[in-house]
Structures are given as C-alpha cells and as structure tokens.
Design a protein that fits this description.
Blueprint: H1 10-29, H2 34-41, H3 45-53, H4 60-69, H5 84-92
Helix pairs in contact: 1-3, 2-3, 2-4
Length: 108
C-alpha cells in the first residue's frame, strides 16, 4: 500500500519548524543528548532529528513521546484549547436558513 505524502502549506511548515526549535531548545536546556532523548522516547535518532527540524512526516505520537520525556506533555493540552471562532459561532447560534422554494413562472 502506498502512503500519500502530506503537503503542508508554508505557514504550517514555519509553525512545525518553530515547534522543532522549541523542542531542541528544551532538550539543550536540560543538557540531554539526542541519543538520550531518542532512547527514552523509544524513537530513532533520525526521527528525533526530524522532529527538531520540524519535519511534517513525523507521527504526532513521536512528538508526544519526546514532549513526555522532556516533561512537557501538558503542552499538548494547549492544542486547540482556546477556540475563539468556535465559541463565537456557538454563542451566535448561527442557523443556516433554508433556501426559499423556487417559484414557477407562468407563460402568459
């Protein structure tokens, strides 16, 4: 079975790169090597390198494992935690109006 390559929009690519940099900085602050993190997260070093580069092809579970090893797993709860647009739509209780029936034109 062939897998499809996910094509990311440039804005999303920049976001993943920033996430990768944040993870790398967290690792460096803790003075942990890539080997230590990869072993503890049960992933390969190349996968960790891809995470730190912000590669889009890495499973979110691998990101979660690395965050757990770094003690940052609660950061995952912040994802989509605040949904201002969704709350506004919910508060407005937008109702989709039904389309008016077509009127028949009489020839005459």
């Amino acid at each position: 079975m062939r897998t499809r390559k996910v094509i990311l929009l440039p804005k999303m690519e920049k976001t993943l790169v920033q996430v990768g940099e944040n993870i790398k900085l967290a690792r460096l602050r803790r003075k942990l090597s890539t080997e230590q993190i990869a072993e503890r997260a049960n992933i390969s070093r190349p996968t960790l390198w891809n995470i730190e580069k912000g590669a889009g092809g890495v499973a979110i579970a691998a990101y979660a494992q690395v965050l757990f090893v770094l003690g940052l797993e609660k950061d995952l709860l912040k994802l989509a935690g605040d949904d201002p647009l969704g709350r506004k739509l919910q508060d407005a209780e937008l109702i989709v109006k039904e389309r008016a029936p077509k009127t028949s034109k009489k020839n005459g």
